[in-house]
């Protein structure tokens, strides 16, 4: 297979760490892939990324996609920008007839879903979405065990996601805190969980009802400032952080404040926050399975609890993360002892058994390296798509559920999820 040439759109943390560096420096991937141009709204961030990728001063970097596209030969575009910009870039890349590998969420609302689906129909290109939970060793095991019939016919699913006071809080420091940028956590974060449930259940959502609020961050804080680095409450705030304590955060964010206006350490108690910090929904699937889902972004630990209940029994997965946080940040005492991952099947006839979860290596529990191989090598080399690669429609379905939750929270009604495809 000849090397494929990629434009990397979005040179922030994920763009650089998940795509730019591995495709440039990983021994295997760099035989099949080459970054040929960078696209971002911030010249300073691009300049930092260019250097990190070992590219020369005259390497094509542009704030205008068409200008960049006219300068370089490319086979595909990787989209790793702020979520709200995905749709525009995907539609643009499709207009060049190119393949797109988009970060999740593929976009932030149903209107953008419809726009992208229309553009894909008219394009020779195609879109895949990096739903990396499909590559997580725990969820790969869960899917296998359920497909083998461990719980019989699936009837009910429950998913509780717990974001801690570091990871969860971080969303409220930056662009995710305003729903117009991210669709809120219902789209930005829950799209991961909605997609993995859809993938395992083998169906798409039918109806959905949600409720939620911002009850911890935003205007609920005891005080507020503009940003951590200038805050007069630094000493008394549990959430104070010195964000700019590494070359990476200075290069990517501090030095790029002027040209992008992107402040990475904004106050998570700012009044303008519109993203819910907890939300809860019930939904039904087209195949009859029913589900309950909750997300909380201020938990004392990071993890999840997922239940699959069927005619034969029940599968339960619980994950409690360790708190490997820097001193001075909010952390829960004794958490390391409680941490672990547990996967158990309760078979109504045969009894209880624990299922081993293989240990992965690399980002997101080993999911990211596996995903890169599928996307950047196998998807070009093999005629048949690996089922773990989320298609455009699958990525869109996860967004539709998040948008349905947003509509439901706003209008206090049950939403017909598939009707959102029609507008
Ligand atoms: N799959 C995962 O597990 C995972 C993990 C982290 C992030 N992500 C996704 O990766 C993407 C990037 O996240 P991040 O944490 O790197 O964010 P970031 O804030 O570090 O970077 C976003 C970049 O997008 C650029 N940008 C914003 N608007 C743009 C536009 N209109 N055109 C071009 N560039 C634009 C910004 O200047 C910035 O460089 C998001 O979509 C996020 O959801 C996925």
Topology:
Elements: E1 4-9, H1 13-25, E2 33-39, H2 43-52, E3 61-62, H3 65-71, E4 76-79, H4 86-95, E5 99-102, H5 110-121, E6 126-129, H6 137-147, E7 154-164, H7 167-173, H8 179-182, H9 184-188, H10 190-201, E8 205-213, H11 247-252, H12 257-260, E9 278-285, E10 290-299, E11 303-310, E12 313-320, H13 335-338, E13 340-347, E14 351-354, H14 367-381, E15 390-391, H15 392-411, E16 415-416
Parallel strand pairs: 1-2, 1-4, 2-3, 4-5, 5-6, 7-10
Antiparallel strand pairs: 6-15, 7-11, 8-9, 8-16, 9-10, 11-12, 12-13, 13-14
Helix pairs in contact: 4-5, 10-15
The protein binds nicotinamide-adenine-dinucleotide (NAD).
Nicotinamide-adenine-dinucleotide (NAD) binds at residues 9-15, 39-42, 45, 80-83, 85, 103-104, 130, 132, 188, 260, 262, 364.
């Amino acid at each position: 297979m000849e090397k494929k040439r990629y434009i990397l759109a979005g040179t922030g943390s994920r763009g650089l760490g998940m795509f730019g560096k591995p495709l440039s420096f990983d021994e295997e991937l760099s035989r099949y892939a080459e970054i040929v141009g960078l696209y971002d709204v911030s010249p300073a961030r691009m300049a930092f990324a260019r250097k990190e990728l070992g590219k020369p001063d005259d390497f094509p970097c542009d704030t205008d996609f068409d200008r960049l596209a006219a300068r370089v030969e490319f086979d595909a575009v990787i989209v790793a920008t702020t979520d709200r910009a995905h749709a525009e870039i995907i539609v643009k890349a499709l207009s060049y007839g190119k393949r797109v590998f988009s970060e999740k969420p593929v976009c932030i609302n149903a209107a953008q879903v419809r726009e992208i689906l229309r553009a894909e129909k008219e394009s020779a290109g195609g879109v895949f979405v990096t739903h990396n939970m499909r590559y997580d060793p725990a969820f790969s095991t869960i899917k296998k065990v359920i497909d083998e019939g461990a719980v019989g016919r699936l009837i009910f699913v429950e998913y509780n996601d717990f974001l801690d006071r570091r990871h969860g809080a971080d969303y409220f420091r930056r662009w995710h805190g305003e729903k117009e940028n991210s669709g809120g956590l219902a789209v930005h974060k829950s799209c991961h969980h909605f997609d993995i449930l859809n993938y395992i259940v083998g169906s798409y959502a039918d109806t959905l009802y949600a409720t939620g609020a911002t009850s911890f961050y935003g205007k609920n804080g005891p005080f507020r400032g503009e940003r951590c680095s200038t805050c007069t409450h630094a000493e008394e705030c549990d959430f104070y952080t010195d964000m700019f304590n590494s070359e990476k955060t200075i290069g990517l964010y501090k030095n790029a404040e002027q040209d992008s206006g992107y402040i990475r350490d904004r106050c998570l108690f700012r009044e303008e926050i519109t993203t819910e910090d907890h939300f809860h929904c019930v939904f039904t699937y087209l195949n009859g399975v029913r589900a309950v889902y909750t997300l909380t972004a201020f938990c004392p630990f990071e993890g999840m609890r997922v239940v699959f209940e069927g005619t034969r029994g029940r599968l339960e997965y619980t994950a409690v993360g360790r708190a490997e946080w820097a001193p001075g940040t909010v952390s829960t005492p004794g958490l390391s002892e409680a941490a672990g991952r547990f996967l158990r099947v309760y078979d109504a006839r045969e009894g209880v058994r624990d299922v081993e979860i293989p240990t992965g290596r690399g980002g997101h529990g080993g999911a990211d390296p596996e995903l890169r191989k599928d996307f950047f090598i196998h998807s070009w080399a093999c005629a048949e798509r690996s089922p773990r690669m989320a298609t455009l429609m699958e990525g869109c379905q996860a967004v539709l559920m998040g948008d349905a939750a947003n509509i439901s929270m706003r209008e206090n009604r049950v939403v017909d999820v598939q009707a959102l495809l029609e507008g």
